[in-house]
Amino acid sequence: MDKLYWQSLDHYKDLKEQSNPDKVKPEPEFSIEGLDESEIKGKSSRRDFLKMLGFSVSAVALVSSCQMPVRKAIPLLNQPSDLIPGVPNFYASTFYDGNDYCSILVKTRESRPIKIEGNDLSKITKGGTNARTQASVLNLYDDARLKNPRLGKVDSDWETIDRDVLNKLQDARESGKKVVLLTPTIISPSTRQLINEFISEYPNISWIQRDTINYSAMRKANELNFGQRIIPNYHFDKADTIVSFNADFLGNWLLPVAFTKQFSTKRKLTDQNKELNRLYQFESNLSLTGSNADYRFTIKPSEESAVLLNLYNEIARATGANTFLAPVTTIDVSKAANDLIASKGKSIVVSGTNNLNIQLIVNAINHLLGNYGKTIDTTKPIHLNQADEADMQQLVKDMNAGKISGLLVYNTNPAYDEADTESFVNGLGKVAFKVSFAETLDETAELCDFVCTTHNFLETWDDAQPIEGSFSFTQPTIRPIFNTRQFQDNLIKWMGLDMDYASYMEQHWKSMLSQHEEVMGNFTDNWNKLKHDGVFQHEEDDSAQATFTEQALKATEPLAEGIELALYEKISMGTGKYANNPWLLEMPDPITTATWDNYVCVPIDLAEEKSLKYEDVVLVNGAFELPVIVQPGQASGTVSIALGYGRISAGMAGNGVGKNAYPLLHTKNGFTNNTGTVVTIEKVAGKTYELAATQIHHNMEDRPIVRETTLEKFKENPISGNEQHIIDEKNNVTLYSKVDYDGIHWGMTIDLTSCTGCANCVIACQAENNVPVIGKDQVRKRRIMHWMRIDRYYSADPENPEVHHMPVMCQHCDNAPCENVCPVAATNHSDEGLNQMAYNRCIGTRYCINNCPYKVRRFNWYEFANNNKFDYNMNSELGKLVLNPDVIVRQRGVVEKCSLCVQRLQSKKLEAKRENRALVDGEVQTACSQSCPTNAIHFGNLKDENSVVVQDNKSDRMYHLLEQLHTLPSTSYLTKVRNKES
Amino acid sequence: MIFNVSVIKSLLRLKGLLLSGFFTLLLFINLSYGQTAEAEANFAVCKACHTIGGGKLVGPDLQGVTERRDEAWLIKFIQNSQELINAGDPEAVKIFEEYNKIPMPPNNLTDDQVRDILLYIENGGVVAGAEVGETEQEVAEEVAVEDADTELLVEMKREDARHLQATFIAMVVLILLALFDLLVTKIIKQKWIPIVILIIAVIISGEVIFIEATNLGRQQYYQPEQPVWFSHKVHAGQNQIDCKYCHFTADKSMHSGIPPVAVCMNCHNQVKKGKITGETEIAKVIDAYNNGEPIEWVKVHNLPDHVYFNHSQHVNVGKMDCTECHGDVEKMDEIIQVNDLSMGWCIDCHRTKEVNFANKFYDQYKQLHEEIANGEKSKVLVTDVGGEDCQRCHY
Amino acid sequence: MYNTRVRGILIQGNKTYSDVSRDIIRPMDDKTPLWWWITAFLATGALFWGMWGFYNTISTGIGEWGLNNNVAWGWAIINFVWWIGIGHAGTAFSIFLLILRQKWRTSINRAAEAMTIFAVMAAGLFPLIHMGRIWDGFFIFPYWNTRGPLWDNFNSPLFWDVVAISTYFMASFVFWYIGMIPDFATIRERTTSAIKKKVYGILSFGWIGNAKGWLRFETAALLLGGMAAPLVVSVHSIVSMDFSVSVIPGWHTTIFPPYFVVGAIFSGFGMVLTLMIVMRKIYKFKDYVTDGHLDAIARILTFISLIMGTAYTTELFMAWYSGNEYELFTFMKNRVTGDYKFAFWTMITCNAIIPQLFWFKSIRKNITIVFIISLFINLGMWFERYVIVVTSLSKDFLPATWATYEPTITEIAVFSGTIGLFVLGVLAFFRFVPTIAISEVKGVLKETTTLKSFNDE
Amino acid sequence: MNNTNIIGVYEDEDVLLKAIDKLQENHIKIADVYSPIPIHGVFEKLKLTTRLPYATFIYGAIGTISVFAFLYWTSVVSYPLKFGGKPLNTLSFIIIMFVLTIFVGTLFTFLTYFIREKMYPGKKVTLPVPRTTNDQFAILIEKDQNMSDLEVKKLNELLKKTGAVEIKESE
Fold first, then answer.
1. A424, A694, B165, B221: which has the highest count of C-beta atoms within 10 A?
2. Per-residue pLDDT, B3
3. Is the C-alpha dihedral spanning B377, B383, B389, B392 positive or negative?
4. Which residue of A has its CA nearest to D90?
C-alpha cells in the first residue's frame, strides 16, 4: 500500500513534467484527457486532477483492493470501507496547532484530503469548526512546506541529520551541557510521556513549553485560589448571564469552537423556549464576541481592573461579602451586577487579560456567584496553554548568558511572535547547536542549524487531551507527501528505540486502557473504534471541586496616560502561524470586512482629534506605518492592531503582508499582555494605503434588511420587528400562478439570533466549491469571489454600535430575476427549486449579476486558475490537489454563484436511491450549514412537512430578504432578537 | 443466420450470463430453487476463481463449502471478505493467507442472493458445470459468427465519416469552378446554371462544416491502441465474464473503474496462454503485476470536463445495461466508442427512459403518484423527475 | 405644395437638374482634399487604439475593465446605447418624414442614413466585446444543435436586442442602398473614368430609370419605410427594456421605452445637425442644406428637449410619488444630490436646458452656436446613459454590496476605437457616395421652381 | 429583326406630361418613359400598377406565424425550461414576433423588388438616352415594321410639336 501513495506521487511528478512544455512526453491518456488541451485553452477543469491521479490511483488503489489507504485508519461506518475512486472517505482526526483545538473529520478523495468538517461525536467541539480549522487543509498543499530535512541552509537527508544531531546530543550529554527542548503546550498524553522518556534518556535536556498567547496569569490566579495551576473548564451552555472582559471566547479565547457551540445553545428561540442568555462584554476593541454582546461597554485596558473590582464590590455588597477599596470609574456596572446576582450559579465571568489581579478578581466574583462546580468546573480543567512564561523569560536570559548549549524548537516560532524577539535572536546566536522541528522554514527555523522537517498534521499520528478526561486522535489521511518525519519519530529514533510513533502511541493506549478493562474490554476492537470515532470520553466519578481560598483584591493599574494599545487576534489570521494560507488571508474580517492586511483601528473621537480618515496611514510608536480604519465601538483613548501579520518567512502569499505587532506586546511583572502598551500615533501626512475591504457602506439606510427586536418585545409579540413581513406578504400579488414543486424543493433558513458572524461558513464554502483566491488588488476592485458573504451593519450609537451579521448567499428565488434575463438560458430553475447555473453555457453578459437584487453572483474576471497573475493555490500543482473533484473550476468569463452545494445534494440523493429509501431530514447538508458552529443555518426539503426548514418557515420570525420584490427566495431568515430591555 | 443472431442478441441482453434453453431444464430439476437461474448467473462471476468439485483455482474448491462453514459467516464473507479480514476474523485471515492474499472483490449481492448461490453450489453445481460446457461452446461459436456484423457496422460508420470529407472537397471544387466560369471563362451561357450550382454547393458544404464542427471534441468511433492487446470479445463475449467482475466499482462509484492488474491475475494466475495472442500479451500483464506497476490503459470513453457522469446512478439505480452506452462490447476485440456521447444523446435517453418509480426514494413525489393513481400517467420518465435539469450533469 | 409655401424654398440658387447632379457629384470627382487625409489619419489612430482595447479585453479578460461584483455593466453598455441612439436619426429622418411626405428631408436623409449605418455598426461592437466568452457568442442564436437541442431564453431583453438590432441594421442598410441606386446610375452615366464606370455600374444594379422601374422603386421605398417606421420605435424601446425589465431601482421604470425612443431621436438629430453643419461647410452645400433645414432641425430639437426635460422630472416625481424607498434613494440621494450629482446635472443641463436657447431666432441663425449646442446634446445624451447604467447599479438594494465604478484605459480605448470607426465610415461616405440623394432633390427641385414660376404669372 | 424605337427627348417633366397626353390623344402607344426622377403623372397616364404591397403583406403574415410556431415549439415542446417562475409560453414572444415579422417582410420585399426588376450587381445596360439619368426625359415609342415612312415622319413632327428637344431612332 506504500505503492499507493508513491504511485500517486510519481504521478504528481508526471504532472509537473506535463505542465512544463520542454519535455512533454506524449501520454495518450492525457492527450485526450482534459489537461493538455485545457492548458492550451488556459481552461482548468474539474476533474483534471482526478483524470491524472484518479486513474493511476484507482488502478493501484484496487491492487490493494480493499486495503485501507493508510495503515489501519478506519473511516466512519457509513462510508465505504475500501478506497473507491470517485467515492469520498471520511477519517476522524484532530486539529491542534499549539493554540487552536478542534476534533474533525477529514474528507478524502482518491486518498487525498480535500475538506475538513467537524466531528459530531466530540463532546467538546460537537461537530463545530472555525475558519482556521476549515482552512487548515490547504496548509497541507502549501508550496512553502519544506521538502527535505535541512542541514544549515541546504537540503539534506535523514541519515546525515540523525548522525549529526545524535552526535551533538550525545556530546552534550557527556559534557552535561544544558540543552532545552522548546515546544508549544503539548496536550498529547503519549507525546508528553515520550518527551519525559526522552529527557530521562538525555537528563541534560530540560523541556520548556511556551505559548504565543499567554494564559499564565489565569493559571497563577487559580493556583492561589485553588492550589492547582489550572484553567478550569467553562460551560457557557449552563450560563444565563455571561460577563466577559476582553475575552473573545467566540473568536479566539481558549476553546472558541466549543464555547461558540455552548453559547449558541442558549441563543435559540422556539415556540417552547423563549429565553436567551445575556452577554455583557467589556472590551477595548470591537471583537467578534463584543459584536454579539447584548450590552457592550468600551473600556481602556488600564480601567479593566477597576471596573472589575467595582463589579465585585457591587456583588459583594448584595451578597454581604467583604468589599475592597476600588477606584471610581465612569462605567456603570450595576446592571451587569444585578443580572449576575439574579442568575447566581448560572453565570460566568471571564477575562482574557493576562493579569494576576484581574484574574483574581474574576475568580472571586465567580466564587461569590457560586459558579464553581456549576458553570465552571475545576475537576476537569482545560489543558491548553499550560506554559508558564517565566520559563521562557528565564530561557532567553540563560541563552544570552551562554548557559544553553543546545536548543530543540518544535512547532513554535519565538523569532517571530516573542514580545522581545531581539534578545531571543541574540541569545539564539550564542547557542551552540539549534535544531528546529518545523513544517515550513519559519523565522526561527531559518536561524537553526538543523531543520528536521515535520509532517503536516494530516500526515501524522497523535492523540490529544484538551480537557481532562476527553481524548481525541489524529490519524494520517495521506502518506507524507515530502521527505518529512514526525517530531515524535525523531525523538524515538534518537532514543535509539526501534519503533515508530504510531506503535508507541498504541502501546501507550494499551497500557492506559488496560486500567479500564472492565469498561473497555478487548483492546483491538476499542483501539479501532477509538480511531474510527476519533474521540474518547473517559467518564470518571467527579472528584470534589477544589476549595476556594480568598485572596486580597486590588486594582493596581493606574489609569494610563496617552493612547493605549489593544492587540487582538483576527478570526482569520489568529497568531499568524498560517500567514501563508491564501484562504485565510482573503477572508473578510467579520467586523471590519477587510482582507489581506492588518491596520490600526482608531476610535472616532481620536480620529477627529488627529483628523484621520479611513485608509490614512499612521506611524505607530515611530516603529512602523499602518493604514487606519476608523472603527465604531473602539474604546476612546485606545487603538487596536491585529497580531499575526508581518511575517517575513511565511511563504509566497504571506510574506510582508501587514506589519508585525508582537513587539508591542505589554510585559508587566512577568506577564505578557495583548493590552496595555501605551503607544504614539502620528499621521503620515499625505500618505494613504488602499485597504482591501469587501464592504464600504456600513449603514442599513433604514431598510428592513436585518430585522431585529428585543427579547422583551418578542415575548409580548413574536412578530415584533417583523411587521414588515405581513405587509409585504399582503402586497405581493402576481399575474402568474405560483410554481409548485413535486417531491423536493430545497430550502434554507438562517437564524440571525444564533449567527455570530464567525465567517466559518465562508471558508467552508470556499473549500467545498473551489472558490478561487484573487489577491489584494482584485479585492480592492470589489471583485471577491466568495459565494457566501457575511454582511455587517452598524446601528445606534457610532461610539459603541449595535452590530448585525447577516450571511448572504444565493437565495435561490422561485421567481429569480437573474433567470429571466440570461439570453442563452445558462441559468434557469430546476425541478428541485434550485436556481441552477450551467457554467459551460454562460457567455458572460453579466446581465444576471446586475439583475440580482442580492448581488450574490460572481464573475470570473480573469482566468483565476493556472494563471501566474494569481499565484495562489490554484496556480500550483501542489495547491491544486485541494480542489474538490466534484466541482468544476470555472473558466474565465463565466458567471458563478452558490449552487446550494448541488454536488452534495446529488450524492446524498444517489445514496438514498441506492439504499432504496427516502431521504432523511438533516442528512443532506450544504457546506455552510454543515460547518456552522452555532447551527444557525438549517437546510432541508421544503416539501417535507416535518423538516426543520419547514418548521422554521412557519415561525413568526421568518422573513425573506427583500421580500417586497416578490422574488420568492427559497432561503429565509429568522429575525435577530437581542436580550435587552427596550 | 439472422434468426441465430437475433436469438443470441436477446440472450446476451439478459443480465449476467444466461444460458439458452437451460432454465427450463433447471426448473424441472428443482422447482424449489426458482432463483437458481439467477444464482447461476451470479455464480458465473465466481467461476472465474472457484470450481465446484473441480479442485482449487485462484480460490478454494467450493464443493461442500456449506458443510464446512456456517451460513451466516459465508454470507458475510462472500459479500465483503475484506471487512471480515480487517476485522481480524481468524478463519477469514487464514483463507486470505492460504490463497496468497488475492482479495475476493466485494459485491452488492443481497443475503438471499447469496443463499441462492449457496443452494446452487450445494446441488445444481455439477449439472450446471456440464451444461455450461456445451452451451459455452455454442455461444462462443455463434458469437464468432456474430462478430462479422459488428465489425461491418463499425466499418460502415467509419465510411460515413470519410464520405463527409470527400463530399466537402467535391463541393469546394464545384464552388471554385462555378465562380471561375461565372467571372472568367463564361462557357455556360445560361447564367443561372452556375449560380444554382454555386448555391447548392455552398449549402451542402455548409452542412458538412456544421456536422464536423459539432463533432469537434467528440470521438465517436475512437479506437486507440492499448498497451496490452486485450480482447473484450474473448473475455466478455466467449468467456462470458460479467462486466462488473472487472469494472466492479461501476455500481458504487461515479467511475466504472479500470480493473487493477490484481483482478486480471485472479484468472491469469492459471491462464497463461491466450486463444489469439498466445503468451505475449498475458505476459505483459503478469510482468506488470510482478513489477507492481499498473498498466497505463488508454481511456476510450471521455466526457468533457464540465460534465459530471455517475456510473452507479445509471448502472446501480437505473439498472441500465452497460451495452446501452458502450455498445456490444462483447463483440469488440479492441474497444471502440460507438456513441458520440453528445448532450443531445444523453437528453434523448433521459426523455425516453423510465425511472424505477418503485424505489422508495420517489415516495415523496406525491403529485406523480397521484397522476399515476388516476391514470393520467402510465409511466414516469427520467425527465419527469428533473432529468432535463442543467445541474444534473453540470456543476 | 402647401408645405413648400410654409417652409419657403427648399433648394436655393435656382438650380437646373444638371446643376444638381454636378454640384453633388463634384466632391467625388475632385482629388482627395487634405482635411480628409488628416481626419482619416486621426480616425485610424483611434481605431487602432480601439483594436488594442479589444485585444486586451479578449486576451486577458473583462477584468481589464473597471467593473466589479455590483456594477457589472459600464462603458460598454453606455456607449452601446449611445451609439444606437445616434443610429436612430437616419431612419427617423427618412422614414418619418417620408411617410409624412416632408419634402425638405430630401437633402439630408442620405447623410442621416449613412450615419445610422455606421453608428449601428459601432454600437454592434459593444455587445460583442462585453461578452465574457466572446468565442461562445454564437450561443445567442437559437440554432439547431446537438445539445438536446437546447434553445435560448426568449424572455431575455438581450435576445430581443440581438433580434431588433440585426433587423434594424438590415432594414436601414437596404433602405439606404436602394435609395442610392438611381444616383449610382447617374454617376455611371456621367463619369468619364473607366474604373468609376465599372464600379458604379456594378453598384447601380443596372438601373435604367424607366417608368415601371420608378413606380416599383417608389412603392418599395414606401413599403420599406412603412415597415421600418415601427422598427425605429421598437428598437430603442427594446434597448430600453434591457433596463426597464430588470428589478434594479432606477432601471425598473415604465416610462423608459418612450423616453428612450425620444432620447434616441434627440441624440440622433443632434448628431445629424453636427454632421450637416460640417458637410455644408466643407462641401459648400448651402444651397441644398439651407439655413431653413438647420432651423427646422433646431426647432425639432427644442421640442424634443422639452420632452426629455419632462421625462426627467417625471422620473423624479414617480420616485417620490411611488413611495418606494429604494427608488427614492436612487433618484434623490444618489443622483440628484449624491456621489453622482455631477453626471446627473450635466445630463440635465445639456439635454433639457441648453437646447432651450433655440427659442431665440438669433441663436438658431448663428450656425457656430448651433454647432456647439449640437455637440452639447451629444455629450448630454452620453451622460444620460451613464447616469442610468452606473448610478442605479452602484447603489442598489443591499448597502453592504455597494461599490463604485471608474472606467479603465482599456474601456476608453474601446470607445475611442468605435468613434474612429464611425468617423472613417462617414469619411468614406463623404468621399465615394453622393452625400445628397440626387434624384430626390431633383424631385423636389421642380416643384419649388414651378411654384416660383406660378408666382411670377 | 429590325425592331427600332422612336425616342423623343425632353428637358422638363411638365412638357413631358403634356406630350404624353398629346400622343395618347393620337392613339400612339407609348412603350416606355425614361426620367431622372419619379413622375407620378406618368404612372397615372400610362396606367402602371404594381402588386408589391400584396407580396409584402403575405411575407409579413407568413413571418409572424412561422416565428410564433418556432418560439412555441422550442420553449414549450422541444426543451421546456423554467425561467423566473414564468409560464413556458410567455408574452415576450410578442416582441420577437413583431420584430422578426418586419425582418422577414423587409428582406423578402426588396428581394422580390430586385427579382421583378431583374436587377443584380454588375448588370450591363445601355440607355437609349444616357442623360435620362441626369437631366433629360425620354418617351420611347415602338416602331413596328409595317409603319410607312410617312407615318414615321408624322410621328416625328408630332413629337417635335409636343416640345421634344431631340428625336432619334434607336436599334
1. A694
2. 38
3. positive
4. A736
Q: Which of C130, C132, C395 lies at the smallest CB-CB distance from A894?
A: C132
Residues of B with Cβ-Cβ distance to A828 under 8 angstroms: 390
- Whether A62 sits inside 8 A of B257 (CB atoms) is yes
**Domain limits at C97?**
2-142+152-456
Interface test with C, best of A780, A846, A868, A964 (most C CBs within 10 A): A846
A481 found inside a domain = no
The answer to whether A739 contacts chain D (CB < 8 Å) is yes
Chosen CATH of D5-49+133-170 out of 1.20.1250, 3.30.450, 3.30.2010, 3.30.70? 3.30.70
Give percent above pLDDT 90 in chain A: 27
Cβ atoms within 10 A of the Cβ of D61, count? 13
Query: Within a domain: residue B74?
Result: yes
pLDDT 10s digits, A855-867 = 999 999 999 988 8
The alpha-helical segments, DSSP class H, found in A617-774 are 711-716, 723-731, 760-768
Whether residue A141 lies inside any domain: the answer is no
Q: How many Å apart are CA A263 and CA A250, to the nearest integer?
A: 8
Evaluate whether A184 touches A391 at the Cβ level (below 8 Å). no
- Look up residue A229 and give its DSSP letter: -
pTM comes to: 0.84
Per-residue pLDDT tens for B24-54? 333 334 434 445 566 766 776 676 667 777 6
Instruction: For residue B165, tell me if it sits in a domain.
Output: no
Nearest-CB residue to C150 (from D79, D125, D135): D79
For chain D, the domains span: 5-49+133-170, 52-117
| pLDDT at residue number B124 | 57
Report the number of distinct structural domains present in chain B.
1
Answer yes or no: do A768 and A689 share one domain: no
Q: How far is D121 from chain C (nearest CA, A)?
A: 4
CB contact under 8 A, D52 and C201: no
- Residue to mutate among C21, C147, C151, with most D CBs inside 10 A, is C151
Strands A563-568, A638-642: parallel, antiparallel or unpaired by DSSP? parallel
Instruction: Inspect the interface and report whether the beta carbons of A830 and B386 lie closer than 8 Å.
Output: yes
In a domain, C268, yes or no: yes
**Chains meeting B at 3+ CB pairs closer than 8 A?**
A, C, D
- One-letter amino acid at A509 equals W
Classify residue C147: in a domain, yes or no.
no
- What is the pLDDT confidence band of residue B165, given thresholds at 50, 70 and 90? confident
Classify residue A409 as left (phi > 0), alpha (psi -120 to 50) or beta. beta
Domain span including residue A751? 708-734+742-857+897-978
Q: How confident is the model at residue B288 (pLDDT cuts 50, 70, 90)?
A: confident
When scoring B191, B210, B382, B394 by the number of chain C Cβ atoms within 10 A, the one with the most, hence best to mutate, is B210
Q: What are phi and psi of D50, to 5 degrees?
A: -140, 150
Reported ipTM: 0.82
Strand partners, A565: A639, A677
Residue C357 has pLDDT above 50, yes or no: yes
**Domain region containing B105:** 31-122
> Which residues does chain B have within 8 Å of residue A45's beta carbon, measured at their own beta carbons?
305-306
Residue A243, beta-bridge partner list: A280, A349
Cβ–Cβ below 8 Å for C245 and A849:
no
Domain CATH code at residue A761: 3.30.70.20
Cell 467583604 belongs to: A322
Residue A329, domain CATH: 3.40.228.10
Nearest CA in chain C to A840: C136
CATH number at residue B67: 1.10.760.10
Judge if A849 and A926 occupy the same domain.
yes
**Residue after which a domain boundary falls, among A330, A356, A382:** A382
Indicate the residue among A632, A667, A693 that finishes a domain.
A693
Nearest to A763 by CA among A586, A635, A629, A608: A586
Chains that touch D (3 or more CB pairs under 8 A): A, B, C
Residue by residue, pLDDT tens for chain D (171 residues) are 356 778 888 877 777 888 888 888 877 778 788 888 888 778 887 888 888 889 999 999 999 999 999 999 988 888 888 888 888 877 888 999 999 999 999 999 888 888 888 888 877 777 777 777 777 888 888 777 777 777 778 778 887 877 777 777 776
